[in-house]
């Protein structure tokens, strides 16, 4: 199904969901019934995974206003596990 946009002279814009190629250049307005002209607009693409978009929006925000940090990131430090099962694992 594709969403087509039409503009009625009296009522304004409205959308019609129809199979691809089914909607012609004119469509009756759902409110007044007058023939309405089809508008050509950008395709409505799905946004996709919300987590990906949140990450992208966060990255865009930090490009303009980077977050303030209190210390440099820790590098070269190894994490020590306190789990006794890990102590029995072979060491390299």
TrEMBL record:
Residues 57-92 are annotated as: Disordered. Signal peptide: none annotated. It comes from the Bacteria. Transmembrane segments: none annotated. Residues 1-41 form the Putative regulatory protein FmdB zinc ribbon domain. SMART domains: CxxC_CXXC_SSSS (SM00834). Pfam families: Zn_ribbon_8 (PF09723). This is Putative regulatory protein, FmdB family. It comes from Saccharomonospora xinjiangensis XJ-54.
């Amino acid at each position: 199904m594709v969403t087509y946009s039409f503009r009625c002279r009296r009522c304004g814009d409205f959308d019609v969901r129809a199979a691809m190629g089914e909607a012609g250049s004119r469509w009756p307005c759902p409110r007044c019934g007058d023939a309405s002209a089809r508008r050509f607009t950008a395709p409505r693409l799905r946004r996709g995974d919300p987590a990906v978009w949140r990450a992208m929006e966060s990255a865009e925000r930090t490009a303009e206003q980077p977050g303030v940090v209190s210390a440099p990131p820790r590098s070269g430090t190894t994490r020590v596990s306190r789990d006794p099962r890990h102590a029995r694992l072979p060491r390299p």
